[in-house]
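tool=predict chain=A
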Amino acid sequence: MYTVALVNAPFAGLRLPSLALTQLKSVLDARFGSAVSSEVLYLNHDFAQAMGVDVYQHIAVDMEAPYNGFGDWYFRQAAFPELEDNSEIYFNRFFPHRTEQNRTRRRVIEEKRLTLDTVLNDLITRHGLDRKDLVGFTSMFSQNVACFALARLIKARSPNTLIVMGGANCETPMGEEIAKNVDAVDYVFSGPGVKSLPDFVQATLDGDLPARERIRGVYSKANCSRLLTPAAGNVGEELPLDVQIDLDYDGFLDSLDEKFAGGNIEPILLFETSRGCWWGQRAHCTFCGLNSQSMTYRSMNADNALALIRSLFRYADRVSRLQCVDNIMPKHYAKEVFARLDTPSHMKIFYEVKADMSDEDLTHLSNGRVREVQPGIEALATPTLKLMKKGTTVFQNLRFLAACTARDIFPCWSLLVGFPGEGADTYRKYIDDIPRLVHLPPPSGVYPVRPDRYSEINNFYTATVYEKGAEIARMLAVVLGRDGFRRGLDLYFERHDGTAATVEEFLAALGDANDRDLSPWLAWYAQAGTPALHARGRYDPRRRCYELTLSQRTPSTPVSS
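tool=predict ok
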């Protein structure tokens, strides 16, 4: 039997399971049955016990931890023992003030850091990681160097154990750099792994080792050393969202109960119903962290989403909170999912939404026990919202907050300040207006805008977008006629004025006003770029004939992940 351990390393939060590892175990079990034994191991739980829960929690949930790099620095020597210790440099840079609190902090951290190799080796022994055929780590936020440290110690004991990594920290181009530069990591999975990891295991079982190098989105030292590797620049192929993947959280909950019995760590179970962002696909918010590879919107069928959420109700005796990891709720879910969902009365659900939801939709959410939402309200000034390309106004944001309050839904929101282009009059208005909003839920805080990481700059409309969009509208006007096109526009504004309408809604309004099915026109919007038409002519004087050859080249549409 081939054995696989899927590891959630420090400093992952204690109360949240790994959705990615849970899905990976599910697809491995479904594909290989008894031929492969896989398990998800929450080493973050074990490590918190060894470190002390209070200290661990402070690091895991501290808002400053991602910015001072503590999680990665803490494991630096364990991962790269050949490097000179840089404790003095680190503390002088990030905790420069010689306060009693900082002196105590440093003393406690350095004492615990001295025993780090011993703690990690104990965890490897306890879970038999050096006896596994494959150990896979997921890495997000401050987990990278912890994974490197564990990988080094496992390889020192068992050189033949395959070490693989995946997760947000491994997406291209970061994945290639990890594969090239971290000796203990054999393969890195960029993007979704629910198809590529089972394919990787299959190739391993078949003894077809070169096939592992050719799997899309899988990087190794070998294929990264070749300049023209087929895998370069790609991410793993994703399964359609409607492929049902069972979410078995028994192991996570058992680990939580065993390690923190009687504690105050309330578990939250995660699920996913869509990827990308339907608003960002139309008008990319200025400070959005999504890039072109992850923006394209796709969502689960409403019936399948309903079945997925209901499947988690089997944990109702152990869990009271469910959290969706979507960037934004599918627009039709209010009526087609939550109006039909009979959520246990003690459970509540979290979703990210857009602040232009109707009162009717919010009522459906409340009845389905969506009791926490994150609506993306980052400003209470319409000029700032326009700079952010949020597609809402201050009136809509305030109306949304009031509507949530009336329906027992708590909106999680914050104010961003210092946005480029904001004027002093915005802050004067805040000073005047905010004290009058005591009847509305307050923001979680006020935060200055700052660039924390690089993302591709692709959130500006290009000439192609303007010219192609105008040309499609012109063609529609020709097909429908001047009067028909005007009837469609009137219906469109009647239905969607003041909302973040989509291309589909635009075509639906034009079609409904003219009793026409315009859905085939969506192909013009789905195809990237503008077709190029080429004409070549040749005149034959003897036959007095002119031959005209027309050809069209359509640029390929990038595959989104």
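Residues 266-448 form a domain with the pyruvate-formate lyase- activating enzyme fold (CATH 3.80.30.20). The two ends are 32 Å apart (CA to CA).
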